[in-house]
Write a structure and sequence with these properties.
Blueprint (H helix, E strand, L loop, with lengths): L24 H15 L4 E6 L4 H5 L3 E7 L1 H4 L3 E8 L4
Antiparallel strand pairs: 1-3, 2-3
């Protein structure tokens, strides 16, 4: 996210088609990335989502802020979240 250059690395590009949602696919994808991040000994991981972050909150992520990311989402609000990868 170019507006938050100090936050890195980012989880990005996770998308599950609507007809395949609610089957644990998104959670499995996120958890796999988190495992790789831990293996690389990276202490924090960040993401932003146009939604409220319910999936990510369930997976242990915390909300950092709600903001507008005009470059990508126009006037839509996004939620910026973080996960302390070594906290478990």
């Amino acid at each position: 996210m170019v507006t938050r250059p100090k936050l890195s690395p980012w989880l990005a590009g996770v998308f599950v088609a609507p007809e395949h949602r609610r089957r644990g696919i998104g959670a499995a994808l996120v958890e796999r990335v988190v495992q790789e991040t831990r293996a690389l000994d990276i202490p924090r991981l960040y993401l932003y989502t146009p939604g409220d972050g319910t999936l990510y909150i369930r997976l242990g992520w915390s909300i950092l802020e709600h903001t507008f990311y005009r470059e990508l989402w126009g006037n839509q609000s996004v939620t910026i979240m973080e996960l302390a990868t070594n906290a478990r």
